[in-house]
Amino acid sequence: MLQSxxxxxxxxxxxxxxxxxxxxxxxxxxxxxxxxxxLGLISAMNADAEWLRGQIRKAKTLTDRPxxxxxxxMSPFADQVAQVVxxxxxxxxxxxxxxxxxxxxxxxxxxxxxxxxxASVGLARMMERSGAAAVVAExxxxxxxxxxxxxxxxxxxxxxxxxxxxxxxxxxxxxxGVAAAFMLGACGVQVGTRFLVAKECNVHQNYKNRVLxxxxxxxxxxxxxxxxxxxxxxxxxxxxxxxxEYDPSVxxxxxxxxxxxxxxxxxxxxxxxxxxxxxxxxxGLVKEEQPAADIIRDLCTxxxxxxxxAPKWVK
Length: 315
Ligand code: TUI
Fold this sequence. Notes:
Blueprint: H1 5-10, E1 16-18, H2 27-35, E2 40-43, H3 49-62, E3 67-72, H4 78-87, E4 92-96, H5 101-109, E5 113-118, H6 121-129, E6 135-138, E7 144-145, H7 151-161, E8 166-169, H8 175-183, E9 189-191, H9 193-196, H10 205-213, E10 219-222, E11 230-233, H11 236-245, H12 252-259, H13 262-269, H14 292-308
Parallel strand pairs: 1-9, 2-3, 3-4, 4-5, 5-6, 6-8, 8-9
Antiparallel strand pairs: 7-11, 10-11
Helix pairs in contact: 2-3, 3-4, 8-14
Bound molecules: ligand TUI.
Ligand TUI binds at residues 22, 72, 74, 96-99, 117-119, 123, 138, 144-147, 228, 230, 278.
């Protein structure tokens, strides 16, 4: 077994978090990951408070194990969902796409373990000072909203800067990635893209097929002009978006409007023409649809073998 303080802190068996993927990470996926011994997370995405409340209650019927909620801070409903997680007794929260500082005191008072996703040392330090239990250091290899630094550069710098546990994310889809993350100083991993093709993931089959067919160079980051770059698979949508992004006659408002609804079109409708299929650069390594529990076991057994074999490199 991998030894990790994050397992003791959260009462989980394996140091594997599931990414809080918008339009993907629902109660079914979160419960499957938690039942498999990892930390499942429901994404609050852009949904309203009552949708999230329903998903939390559903997850409680599907698993007795710890699970969490991911709050996307750019959501127009962030204030409301921040309150719902307190009301529903959620034990673990991750946050993304912003600084959760203004909510930290209320969440800590409610006894919630808050684990912000960070893309820089500065935010990691600030989160440690405001009482975060751990941080997820997410590299630019990730799918969805991304920062600038790679996992390889970000994780050791965050580990050197803070005393709280660090979870590595971005570009991890097998045991080699898990072992590497531990060598960089992390004590756990967050995995998104590989869980997109979990059997219990309710995303449209076209989405899964796109991920399963993806090659190493099949993702692209768009949205830099609007200040929030997003990584997705190269599709007609991402090519059209890129073209508009570099067209000075297209206003920022028009560009923003063009992206609205594209995540839902991909995840729910499997719409290959207009959907935005968020995925990380490691998609090319993901070749098989499997139960979430098998994915977690695979990741950890392969990592254990690699870490046990590490002395072969030392004379
Ligand atoms: O949040 C994510 N990934 C996401 S959110 C999302 S939904 C969305 N859809 C369209 C446009 C934008 C978002 C899809 N994928 N990952 C966590 C993450 N957080 N990555 C990077 C960051 C981050 C970046 C800058 C966190 C904080 C930050 O700056 C905070 C500040 O204000 O200092």
